[in-house]
Every structure is written in C-alpha cells, then in structure tokens.
Amino acid sequence: MAEATSASLAAERAAAVRWSHRIEAWGAALFFAAMRALPLDIASATGGALARWIGPRLGVSNRARRNLRAALPELSAARIEAMVRGMWDNLGRVAAEDPHLRYIRVFSPDGRVETLGIEHLDRALAAGHSVILFGGHLGNWEIAALAAGQYGLDIAQIYRAANNPLVDRTIARFRGAKGSSGTGEFIPKGAIASRRAVGALRRGAHLALLADQKLNDGIAAPFFGRPAMTAPALGLLALRFDCTVLPTRVERLQGARFRLTLYPPLELPRSGDRDANVAALMTAINTTLEGWIRERPEQWFWVHSRWPD
Questions:
Q1: pTM of the model
Q2: 147 near 305, Cβ under 8 Å?
Q3: Cα–Cα distance, 8 to 71 (Å, whole number)
Q4: β-strand pairing of 244-254 with 257-262
C-alpha cells in the first residue's frame, strides 16, 4: 500500500510539470552541457555574447528600459540601450558559469575571486553573534553563496526558486555540488522559509539572502526614490535574534573574475517600536543596494518588476 501511495504521488508530481517546463528544461540542459564542456572563461564569454544578442530583442527588456528610465532619468536613450545589453551580458555569463561553480575556490590566493572585508565576519563570529549576510542580484551573486560555504559557516541560504521546477532542480545541483558550497542548507522562499530560518538561527547558524526582490505583501521602503514593496523578514529576524547584518557585494571585474566585499555591519535600530525599527533597517538595506547598483547598473537585474506598475 505504501509503495502504491508513493508511486501515485510521484505520478501526480510528474503530471503537474507542464510540457513547456520540460521543453525549457531540455533546452537548458543542452546549454549547460555545452557550457560545461568549455573552459570557464570561454563559457562565460559565450554565454554573455548569446544573451547580449538575444536578450535586448525580448519583450521583457522593455521593462528593463522602463525601470532604467525611472530610476536613472539622467541616462540618455543610447546609454539605456547600452545598459540593457550589459545587463543581458552579465545574466548570460551567470548562466554559463553555473556548471562551473564546483571548480571555483573563492579563497584561493591565485583564484579568480578577490575578497575584501572578511575581518567584519571574523569579528562577528568571535563575538558569538549569528550573522545575516545580504546582497542583491549583482555580478554573479552565486559567488557569495560559494564563499559562505567554503568559509566553513553553518549557513542557511534563502533563495527564490526558478519558475521552472526542472531547471531549478538543475541549478540546485550546481549549487550543492560536492566540495563547492561547504556546509549548510538552501531554503527556497515560500510558506516554510521563515520557520526554517528561525530554526537555523536558534541552533546558532547564520543566514544569507538576496534582498533586492519585490514582495507584494511586504512593507514599502524607498528604493531609487520610489516606494518599493520590500520583504521585512531580514529586519524581523535580525532584531529578534540580535544578529550582525553584513552587506555582501559581488562585482564582476572582467570576464569571469570577481570581487567579493563584506562591509561593516549595519546598525540595528533600537527605538522600542518594532515596526519602526524594521522599516528603518529595511530602508538602510535598500539604500545600500541602491548605492551598489548606481555604481555598476549594468550588473543588476533590471527586468525584475521591483516597483508597482
């Protein structure tokens, strides 16, 4: 009976996967296989070139153009087009670099990642604090996840699952490849994410997350001069567990070479009003992300629907 029930559940899950998902997954598998067969630098350049050619022609790029015009009104039309091409170049490189994540050693002295500010993490760990590392979809954001695991942290990394569950499963394998990410767990955003994050902090572990995406039922916090619905979970958890909140930035320097920078911790507001404290902390986080994006706008995910339409 148990075997029959298990088989039935498996059949239901398989039926729930749309054929469009399967076709996308086959295409992604071919792309990843081709990129894996190439040396990392060549794969990165190839992925960037393909996305630079295809991406600007896609309808979703119109959202990126609207977002750029609203956020950076000083840019000319030609500069906006260059930013859109640069954004797609970066996204194509990120996708092509995914199959190679297991081979990137963040802290290798002769590696492809320059690291700065690790002393801020060491200081928090020495003080016995749980740490929340936050960043955004900048450069190749997967480098920050690699760094946290390879540094030996017991860390729960909260991420947004891909819309296609089959593709998401493939990317998860790249993230969790043996020897690539060290210890910890990956938690997809959703109904149980908060509970699992609380459990991680209670056992003395740490959190890492990308804080630049829209949450419709979040709180409004300014971002590029406009209210943006922002997930408050980071602020709630940081204040509840007295965490050290470390801004963590990944920049693409050239090709498949990167800089990972940890900045001094953000100050936790202590007004006595929980909601006001959360709002103040999330505003500080959005301000930090905005500063990074302004410095390297072509490396951010402008196609995301970050603001209300």
A1: 0.88
A2: no
A3: 50
A4: antiparallel
* Paired sense of beta strands 244-254 and 131-135, if any: parallel
Burial environment of residue 98 by CB neighbours within 10 A (0 to 12, 13 to 18, 19 or more): buried
Residues 255-309 have pLDDT tens digits of: 999 999 999 999 999 998 999 999 999 999 999 999 999 999 999 999 999 987 6
Q: Three-state SS for 251?
A: strand
Report the amino acid identity of residue 281.
L
Note every long-range contact of 35-43, with CB atoms under 8 Å and residues 24 or more positions apart, other chains counting. 35/95, 35/96, 35/97, 35/98, 35/99, 35/100, 36/99, 36/100, 40/97, 40/100, 40/103, 40/104, 40/112, 40/256, 41/255, 41/256, 43/96, 43/97, 43/99, 43/100, 43/256
61-116 tens-digit pLDDT: 999 999 999 999 999 999 999 999 999 999 999 999 999 998 999 999 889 999 99
Contact 211, 284 (CB under 8 A): no
Q: Are 248 and 135 in contact (CB under 8 A)?
A: yes
Q: Which residues of 260-298 are buried (b: 16+ CB within 10 A; e: fewer)?
A: bbbeebbebbeeeeeeebbbbbbbbbbebbbebbeeebb
Residue 138 main-chain phi, psi, to 5 deg: -125, 145
Written as six digits, the tokens of 231 are 């997930």
Beta strand pairing call for 206-210 and 155-159: parallel
Q: Where are the alpha helices (H) located in the chain, listed in sequence order? A: 2-16, 19-37, 40-54, 61-71, 77-97, 118-126, 142-150, 165-175, 193-202, 233-241, 274-295
